Known about the structure:
homodimer; seven-stranded mixed sheet; six-stranded mixed sheet; 12 helices; 18 strands; globular; aldehyde dehydrogenase (NAD+) activity (chain A); EC 1.2.1.5 (chain A); aldehyde dehydrogenase [NAD(P)(+)] (chain A); oxidoreductase (chain A)
Amino acid sequence: MKDEPVAKNLLTQMGSAFIRKEPFSLALIISPWNYPVNLTLVPLVGALAAGNCVVLKPSEISKSTEKVLAEVLPQYLDQSCFAVVLGGPQETGRLLEHKFDYIFFTGSPRVGRIVMSAAAKHLTPVTLELGGKNPCYVDDDCDPQTVANRLAWFRYFNTGQTCVAPDYILCSPATQERLLPALQSAITRFYGEDPRSSPNLGRIVSDKHFQRLRGLLGCGRVAIGGQSDESERYIAPTVLVDVEETEPVMQEEIFGPILPIVNVRSLDEAIDFINRREKPLALYAFSNNKQVVNQILDRTSSGSFGGNEGFTYLTLTSLPLGGVGNSGMGRYHGKFSFDTFSHHRACLLSHPGLEKLNEIRYPPYTNSKEQLVSWALGSQSCTLL
Amino acid sequence: MDPFADTLRRLREAFSAGRTRPAEFRAAQLRGLGRFLQEHKQLLQEALAQDLHKSAFESEVSEISITQSEINLALRNLRAWMKDEKVPKNLATQLDSAFIRKEPFGLVLVIAPWNYPVNLTLVPLVGALAAGNCVVLKPSEFSRSTEKVLAEVLPRYLDQSCFAVVLGGPQEMGQLLEHKFDYIFFTGSPRVGRIVMSAAAKHLTPVTLELGGKNPCYVDDDCDPQTVANRLAWFRYFNTGQTCVAPDYVLCSPATQERLLPALQSAITRFYGEDPRSSPNLGRIVSDKHFQRLRGLLGCGRVAIGGQSDESERYIAPTVLVDVEETEPVMQEEIFGPILPIVNVRSLDEAIDFINRREKPLALYAFSNSKQVVKRVLAQTSSGSFCGNDGFMHLTLASLPFGGVGASGMGSYHGKFSFDTFSHHRACLLRCPGMEKIYSIRYPPYSPRKLRVLLMAMEARGCSCTLL
């Protein structure tokens, strides 16, 4: 919250220059169903810390969590400065007609556009945490079991319903052959012979998403898993191979426990494949060779990047979490949250006297005044911020 | 017929090919921009004189020098700004490399206004180039002479595979905005700001909007009227009042108004002479449309100082209006001219209420010998920026972020803020491919013991510092 003093030039030397952090005022947080506690409350932390009043709109799809947030949470906060509002797309639409001073939205790119358009009418700044298909390049030079462990955990965590989960793999046919048994091994170790009976595997949030995912099981060829059970909204940890770029599983963000493998013949082809598509929220590269990892990092763009690892970076509040391009704008976590929900006001407090010093800048203008003023303007003490 | 498709495609191809990534390339562009300013300083001054009757002093100080400073700052700091920023880690990531990588967005559109057509076009350009983007510049068609120099001369100093100037009016702008950009930087009115943001929303393009508003200026009873009048007058009539951060109106008590008026007259006479129209240091209104608009405002309240105008020159005298009602046009729109209305308030509280009833302005000013008063105005209001006991000097500090809030805009720039505005900050974590035994603790089947260990590892920071 503290005022941040900044470097001055000669003309402002007698004053005090600093950045004052101010709340925007009324912040709206719209959160999704997949991590309904985290993705509702972590933004709330930032908004509260920055001094805003907050309206929370949790997802109606994660119904039980919505109930707890609506009924219990307000008891712990000052309700003159905080409110939970409920409803579906229609209510959200009505809510968005109102003017807010900041809108923080986590959800799909499609709805992100709607939110930003609504915000534009009121010139409301936004942070949009969206999604995409997060590519995962697996190099020939790797230990397949290590890679498979890491891939499997991050893919099937929360039943794949994670915006930063690896969405699809890019690798050579040879590496695919090594990966498949390793993936099967990892899945069996993690979830047992019958993943459906494992307490450690989740379920799909809704019938609509279940149907959508079951449809994707028909793409390519099922190499591992593929089972599903409508009564439980259960989908087995699945790996698909022989997948074409044009098939549905490669067209939309999967958001489920299905991992398609797309073959490429080289690193260059993988990078081209990635760069032909929208910038994703996350991007992963697995290789024993540092050069390969760095090449992918250097030649692509994404919200965030993991080398030889999945979304562990999320646990570092010193890293900004956010998207780029179609995967979003703005970022948060840690101090980034506080800064996101604050207006950084430039302040200069000058001396009310010492007017003689200022006469150099007033008309009638002369060449010598001009030179002096130009020089004094350029003279900043410390240049590195 | 899409006049822009080819240009945009060319720039995107250059970006995809990686032309703008190396520091050497960016530095070369910045140096090119610097040479353009130096070699054509006179040409630019003449253009500014034609467009706005801007004096050489004002051109130098508020357009050319400021731009040159930004270029120099960017050149000095480019590599430091571009560098991966290492960040503190927790136990779980102790063996990893964690850092923030700065990346260009890609294709950036900079839309600039007519009032400081060199500064407000080129300073954003500095940031966009330093950050490694390809840039499309859309200068204002109202500052015609400057537009011509920017369109015809500037491109020769930059790599034209990565840079283009596009021209046109509202219709062309609309067409341009249908295309997808990776960043849009707009300086102009709130009304057009909404249009730009709506267009950007269709492509999920992030934006910085430097807009405007009515910048209040509270003058306390406890002040030296001549000092205040000097400062007020200079910042109000600089560039003939056509400044987004100029004090727009004064709030003070009737008593203070009585002391201010003769002081303002004295300042105006000292600055511009007995006949301001013949002063080389006073500019002109940019267009007939704005001249007519401003001449209309002269009918509000009562003219206490100035009030003369001449259509043939688009001249409006440095003017002060009193007895102004809140409902009159001069208090309804951003003035953007050499007219300073004074509105009376009976107390500091009333002034603060008045300010807070209205849209958040781009700038806010408070003049008082009392530090407490200045601090109260600062603490009880919000605005893009704030200056106590002076006008927009804060603009000259590249260490301060320049931007609006609420209806006056979003985002900020100048100095490193420009570089950061035009960069995507990509969170990166690089782990070594081995040591799998250590990391296996997180895998299912889950157990309470595993959970405890993991939570501890995520929480604990090594020996690093928690303050960022």
